[in-house]
Amino acid sequence: MDADFYHTTCLKNLLFLFSIFKNRGFIPCGEKFFISTLSPFPFPLFPFLVKIYSERIDDIPVIVEWLNKMEIGKWIDEKLTPPHGNHKGLSYGELSVLLLTYIITQSDHRLSAVEPWIEANRKILELTTGWSIGKKDATDDRLARVVEELGLQSEARLEIEVNRTYATGTMRSLVCST
Question: Do the Cβ atoms of 26 and 38 come closer than 8 Å?
């Protein structure tokens, strides 16, 4: 289908909807609709109205998919000791994926800034990950606990790095400038 036809069809549909609103007596105004008493149609148009949400997604889906393909969350969940029994919500691996996504997209490693970022991008994060992210799932104390566990369990961390290297086929090297 060619682009001009698509744009023309969209424009015609918008003009048609506008004429219906105008002739019907509905005047859209934000979330509310004002109805005039003069109505040429015997039925309301409410079932035909669609609510549209707009949100910038930037590079979040690409980064989440990339981290999922690398199986970072899976390896962390397998190798780290699980949190205590009172821990509800996301696992260490899922929190790690959210934290890494934040660090990569925002170029910022502050833990305190992750929670408001997740709140601002909740819809796209839930759609790309498939997880139900609670309001307090990614607080800075929970993220600090994940980072602390990764630091304390050096053997598990080494296993995660080795397994990820063999699974993805990537090689890591250290370049020393001295």
Answer: no
CA distances from 172 to 83, 168, 175 (A): 30, 11, 10
CA distance 56 to 102: 15
Per-residue pLDDT for the chain (178 aa), expressed as one digit of tens each?
A: 566 655 566 566 666 655 655 554 544 444 444 444 444 545 454 455 666 767 777 889 999 999 999 888 998 898 888 877 777 889 999 999 999 999 999 999 999 999 999 999 999 999 999 999 999 889 999 999 999 988 887 777 677 666 655 555 554 544 445 4
- Candidates 56, 61, 161; CA nearest to 104 is 61
DSSP structure string for 102-160: HHHHHS---GGGHHHHHHHTHHHHHHHH-----TTTT-HHHHHHHHHHHHH-HHHHHHH
**Position of tokens 């707009």?**
54
**Prediction pTM value:** 0.62
| 81 SS3 class | coil
